[in-house]
Amino acid sequence: MKEITVTTQDELDALPSKFDEYTRIYIKGGARDNRIAVKVARENSSVEAWENSSVVARGNSSVEAWGNSSVEAWGNSSVVAWENSSVVAWGNSSVVAWGNSSVEARENSSVEAWGNSSVEARENSSVEAWENSSVVAWENSSVEAWGNSSVVAWENSSVVACENSSVVAWENSSVVARGNSSVEARGNSSVVACENSSVVAWGNSSVEARGNSSVEAWGNVGVHLQSDFSNVLLFGFSVLWVLAKGKYVKKSKNAIMIIPEVKDGIEGWFENNAVGDKKKVILYKRVSKDWKTQEGNPWETSWAIGLKLDHPAWEPTKSECEAGKYHACSRPYFCDEFRSTRGDRYIAIEIEREDLYAWPKPSYPHKIAFRRGTVLFECDRHGKKLEAP
């Protein structure tokens, strides 16, 4: 690999339009009143911009922007922006923005925004927003919002809001709210409210209330009360399915409360979770990036693909959540209630029916205990198998 360092605009402009071998160009210098501008990235080249440089990268170029650099990445460009950089990424660009960066990602871009970054993600973008980031997600974007992030999700976007994040979900967006997150769900949005999150749902939105969550349901919203500690207020023509002992108040004469009869035992758990009652079933678990759970505890467990596990101290009837059994969920995304560590994975586990135990009148209706099982494969949060790289 050839390396070239330029410190002036003339040195950069004098470079050839293409190189015979892969060449890395380092741009250093460029005071605020004399910025070095990269109008186009040479073929077969990679650009690193330092200090106050300005870069426009086209084609399949790769750019790293440092200091107060400003970058526009086009085509399939890949950009890493540090400190106060400003980035506009087009095509299939991939962007990691640090510090106070501002990013607009379009088409199939993938973005990680750190610090006080501001991101607008369009089409099929994937975004992780940290600290005080502000994100607007369009179409089929996927967003994880951490810290005090603010997210507006449009169309079919998927959002996981953690800590003190604020989310406004429109149309068919899907949101999982954790910590003290605040969510406003509109259109046909779907929200799972966990921990101390607060949700105001409008239109035809669907909400699951868990933990200590607080929910206001308006319009034709449907709410599933899944926790003894959640609070639900029903307005308009909203409907509540009472599946736990949480508090709920009917604020409109048109609102409806449904108290279904739920079967106990494995048969009831299968029915309530839409899991086929078979001799063997596939259930799911969320584990660390190293395939572990309960890291650092005496009962730390490895869940590597292909492992067959048999609990050494099977005592499922002592409590719903404590030691004495393994736990799995009917869908991968239900496992988000129990883990939220960055870099976690989802796994699929094959379990025989006779090795399952369903807690009577559970506080966590999507979770079940099991004695032994085989780890089949890694999957996404919707259960789709992920192919090994």
Write up this protein.
This protein has 389 residues and is mainly beta. The chain folds into 3 domains: 1-85, no CATH class; 115-260, no CATH class; 265-379, ADP-ribosylation fold (Alpha-Beta Barrel). It is 3% helix and 43% strand. The protein contains 2 helices and 39 strands. Strands 1-2-4-6-8-10-12-14-16-18-20-22-24-26-28-30 form a 16-stranded parallel β-sheet. The longest helix has 8 residues, at 265-272. The protein is globular and about 80 Å long. It starts with a strand and ends in a 10-residue tail after the last strand. The mean pLDDT is 79.
In whole angstroms, the N-to-C terminal distance is 26 Å
The helix content is under 10%
Question: What is the percentage of strand-forming residues?
Answer: 35-45%
Low-pLDDT stretches are none
State the secondary-structure class: mainly beta
Largest sheet geometry: 16 strands, parallel
Q: Strand order, biggest sheet?
A: 1-2-4-6-8-10-12-14-16-18-20-22-24-26-28-30
Tell me the quaternary state.
Answer: single chain
The gross shape turns out to be globular
- Average pLDDT across residues? 79
Structural Rg:
25 Å
Number of helices: 2
What is the total number of structural domains? Answer: 3
Can you count the beta strands? 39
SSE topology:
Elements: E1 2-6, H1 9-13, E2 18-27, E3 37-38, E4 43-49, E5 54-57, E6 62-65, E7 70-73, E8 78-81, E9 86-89, E10 94-97, E11 102-105, E12 110-113, E13 118-121, E14 126-129, E15 134-137, E16 142-145, E17 150-153, E18 158-161, E19 166-169, E20 174-177, E21 182-185, E22 190-193, E23 198-201, E24 206-209, E25 214-217, E26 222-225, E27 231-234, E28 239-242, E29 247-250, E30 256-258, H2 265-272, E31 280-287, E32 292-293, E33 301-302, E34 308-310, E35 326-329, E36 345-352, E37 356-357, E38 367-370, E39 372-379
Parallel strand pairs: 1-2, 2-4, 3-5, 4-6, 5-7, 6-8, 7-9, 8-10, 9-11, 10-12, 11-13, 12-14, 13-15, 14-16, 15-17, 16-18, 17-19, 18-20, 19-21, 20-22, 21-23, 22-24, 23-25, 24-26, 25-27, 26-28, 27-29, 28-30
Antiparallel strand pairs: 31-36, 32-33, 34-39, 35-38, 36-39, 37-38
